[in-house]
ABC-type dipeptide/oligopeptide/nickel transport system, permease component (Wenxinia marina DSM 24838), 315 residues
Amino acid sequence: MLHFLAKRLPSVALMLVVTAVIAFLLPRLGGGDPAQVVAGSDATAEQVQAIREQMGLDRPLPVQFAEWVGQVATGDLGTSLISNRPVAQLIGARLGSTLELAVTATALMIVMGLGLGILAGITRKGAPRALLDGAISVLLATPPHVTGLILILIFGITWRLMPITGEVSVFDDPVRGFSYLIMPAFALALPQAAMIARLVDARMAQVRQEEFVDLAVAKGVPPRRILLSHVLRNSLGTAVIATGIRIGEILAGAVVIEAIFARQGLGMLAVTSISSRDYEVVQIIVLFAVVIAVLVHFASEILLAALDPRIRLDG
């Protein structure tokens, strides 16, 4: 395992550096001048230039980047250009809402993805197989925001079973909290679950063609044991890696879903910060989201290596 980690850590470190560069440059490439935002539309050119010098924006970009990384590394995430509040405070106030949504959506994605994938893997023909293929294809083709609107129309407007907008923390009131959380979580999870299901189904079909499965059949091993100990066990690695990748998709999709369901999480904060050109907040949110996605993917690779000795040996 140590050899595997030694081989993978440099690439993860490189990804984190690239992420920091992108997060730093992205607001600046979007146009506009942070000094102008701070100074206001009525400020003179001299006032804007003075603010630029005060904020260090007149220095070379590499110098600005090094200073920004140093501040972030020490926990100083900067100050909002619009509200003049610490960025850490703004993110901390919204982080709980997004974590509730992301964790619930991830749990639903894993349960539904594995369930559908295994069911499709053991159902190889007939009408049930065609029905499963059709359902998975529809879920794959439907983006989260469309799924969210459909859920609102059915369960929020037609049947009035769930609240449409707003939120209540599950830690304050678990029952009401989940009633506000379940529709946006399903909207985020369904397309990602369909992707995992498709990968697990395809991998199970591939494993069935392996020689060790033919050998088990020739030795008279019971079909249930072949399915569980040979086919399914050797198919789960695909689901582990896919889950790590899909969590990044869930974080990205949360931006739109939070807007649709009026949840006051990091997604809504990102939307309002982009529209108001609050660069300090935007770059920290981008950095936070991508770093989480990279670390989760790395954790999934470690889990896969722990499950499959061949991965550890190959590094």
